[in-house]
Amino acid sequence: MRSIRIQTPDELHSQVEKALAASAHVFVLFFGREVPNTGNSWCPDCVIAEPHIRKQVSRLDNSVLIEYPVDRKTGGATTYWSSDKLNIRAIPTLVKCANPDGLTKEALVEDDCQDERNLAAFLGLDSRL
After folding, report:
1. Strands 102-109 and 63-70, sheet pairing
2. Which of 6, 19, 26, 43 is catalytic?
3. Looking at residue 35, what DSSP letter applies?
4. Residue 113: active-site member
5. pLDDT digits 0-9 by tens, 8-33
6. CB-based contacts of 3: which residues, under 8 Å, 6+ apart?
7. Catalytic residue at 46?
8. pTM for the whole thing?
C-alpha cells in the first residue's frame, strides 16, 4: 500500500487522477488532523479506526490510500463536508475512488471504519483473514 498525504481540494483531485492511472485500488480517508503536541488525531474515532483501515487496505495489491486531514472547526477538508459530490458528514470516512473526476458515493463512515469485517467486505476481501 502506498500512502499519499494531501492538504487541499486541488491536490485531492490531481492525486486521485494520478493514483487511478497507476493503481487498481484507490481510496481517500478523511480523518481528524493530528494535534501537534500529541501526534494523535483530535478525533477519537479516527485514532481507533486508522490501524484497521491501514491493515485492510494494505491487503489489496497495488493499493493507494490518499489521506486528507480535517481540522476540527475550519480549513482543510471542511469544504468537502458540505459538498454535494462527496457528502462527507462525519469522520473517519473512507471513500472508494472510481474515476479521475470524482469519487464514488460508496463510503464507510465512523464506526464502520473500526470494524475489520465491514472494512474487508467494503474492500472486497475475505473477512476471515
Report:
1. unpaired
2. 43
3. P
4. no
5. 877 888 898 899 988 889 999 999 99
6. 64, 65, 66, 67
7. yes
8. 0.85
Please give the pLDDT value at position 75. Answer: 47
Residue with cell 476540527: 72
Domain 2-123 has CATH 3.60.20.30: no
Could you say which of 12, 28, 29, 46 is catalytic?
Answer: 46
Distance CA 40, CA 121 (A): 27
Measure CA 77 to chain center. 12
Query: Which grid cell is 70?
Result: 480535517
- Considering only CA atoms, which of 103, 91, 84 is closest in space to residue 20? 103
Q: What is the mean pLDDT of the chain?
A: 84
Percent of the chain with pLDDT over 90: 56
What string of DSSP letters covers 41-105? BS-HHHHHHHHHHHHHHTTSTTEEEEEEEE-SSSSTTHHHHT-TTT---SSSEEEEEEETTEEEE
Give tens-digit pLDDT for 30-70: 999 999 999 999 999 999 999 999 999 999 999 999 999 98
How many residues does this entry show for the chain?
129
